[in-house]
Specification:
Number of strands: 8
Strand order of the largest sheet: 2-3-1-4-5
Oligomer: single chain
Number of domains: 4
CATH class of the largest domain: Alpha Beta
Structural class: alpha/beta
CATH architecture of the largest domain: 3-Layer(aba) Sandwich
Number of helices: 13
Order of helices and strands: HEEHHHHHHHEHEHEHEHHEE
CATH topology of the largest domain: Rossmann fold
Strand content: 5-15%
């Protein structure tokens, strides 16, 4: 009850008391968290701006190609439609090759920084889609698979010849059959040499041999991966042009009301991953420099240890991150999140939630009954060095 109004009041109070460089990131799923003077941008499928999910962190410890790819895959897999193991592998190899083509080598951290002045830029989702289509054409034409198939023919012919040679010591050996096998082996060798010569002359990505070895079903897998990337692009949140958020404004409001539930989650998780990575690069600080505000927090609930939100609530404070969550019921929050929240505000609960709150938060049922919606709330705040604390009634 009254959580949207309370979010506005919390942001306003933190603006007044916080560090002058603090940035508020308000993820507005319904379009009703209207923060005064905020720089607000609405994201939808017709947007011509968005965030680039393939932008790297150049930090040698916390950034890089592998972490960026894994973060994107993990975000996709938090939605209702996960990538299969073959799709994950195909997408990883596709993006590694794309980064390498643009000059960003996974194994060399000195290549991870972009240099727009010299034409070195991070690839975009559209680049990945176009590059994936090129790879599909290569697989479909069998240009590199031909060499591997020819080599397999050589091995097959050599094995048949060896078996026949072993049979020569027995009566009735067929010398003519052996001569025929020798001719077939020589023909296979010549075809393999031609095929490998062509493969050597046409190689340009460095992944041709792996592609050929894994060719079975690869075309279909790549097509399904490109379909997923195209669907991501059509959402309207992943574009090469940054959104028009005012860098001078301390409050950035991401209005994502037009997106589906999965799309909202995907947008929020990838954005949080970027914010968290940049905060870690920034280093340990005593000041709050980023405030994350998540309305309808139950959309993002997950108990996994590697989940970006859970990592942020565990580790974010020392890197200057504060997080504000709002939801309809305490049971919407995972235990790992409940345990790491320093302040909890109960604005008014249906009585069916009382037993859960008493058990999880350790407050009395009598204090819950003292809450008056919009007038009196229950606040539980941990102090430094405190493992447990009571709750205080506060008049609004």
């Amino acid at each position: 009850m009254g959580k949207t109004t309370m979010l506005r009041r919390i942001v306003a109070a933190m603006k007044e008391s916080g560090h002058p460089r603090v940035r508020f990131h308000v993820f507005d799923g319904h379009g009703d968290v209207d923060i005064p003077d905020a720089s607000s941008v609405t994201f939808h499928e017709s947007s011509d701006f968005g965030f680039n999910p393939l932008e790297l962190s150049a930090d040698p410890e916390f950034g890089g190609v592998r972490k960026r790819i894994q973060s994107l895959i993990m975000a996709i897999n938090r939605t209702s439609v996960r990538l299969g193991p073959r799709q994950e592998r195909a997408l990883t190899r596709l993006l590694v090759a794309l980064y390498r083509r643009e000059g960003f080598v996974m194994e060399d951290h000195t290549t991870w920084a972009a240099d727009p002045a010299n034409g070195k830029r991070y690839p975009t989702l559209l680049d990945a889609i176009e590059y994936g289509r090129e790879r599909i054409k290569v697989v479909a034409t069998g240009s590199n698979q031909r060499a591997v198939n020819a080599l397999q023919d050589v091995f097959r012919a050599a094995k048949q010849k060896r078996i026949k040679e072993e049979a020569l010591s027995r009566p009735g050996a067929d010398d003519e059959a052996l001569a025929k096998l020798e001719r077939e082996l020589q023909s296979a060798r010549e075809k393999a040499i031609d095929a490998f010569t062509e493969a050597v002359m046409t190689a340009h990505t460095g992944d041709e041999f792996e592609d050929a070895l894994d060719a079975e079903g690869q075309k279909e897998t790549l097509e399904s991966v490109i379909d997923r990337l195209e669907n991501l692009y059509q959402i309207g949140i992943y574009r090469s042009t940054p959104p028009p958020l005012d860098t001078r404004n301390r409050v950035w409001r991401y209005i994502i009301k037009s997106l589906s539930r999965d799309e909202k989650k995907l947008f929020t998780l990838t954005r949080l991953e970027t914010i968290f990575t940049r905060a870690v690069q920034r280093g340990i600080t005593d000041e709050i420099l980023d405030v994350i505000v998540l309305d309808e927090a139950h959309w993002y609930s997950d108990s996994s240890e590697d989940y970006v939100i859970n990592r942020m609530v565990r580790e974010g404070r020392k890197f200057g991150i504060s997080m504000v969550f709002a939801s309809q019921a305490p049971s919407d929050f995972a235990d790992i999140l409940i345990g790491n929240l320093g302040t909890k505000l109960l604005l008014g609960l249906d009585h069916t939630n009382n037993a859960y709150v008493v058990r999880k938060l350790g407050v009395s049922e009598a204090s819950l009954k003292s809450i008056i919606p919009h007038r009196r709330v229950l606040v539980q705040m941990k102090g430094i060095g405190e493992l447990a604390t009571g709750a205080t009634l506060v008049s609004l």
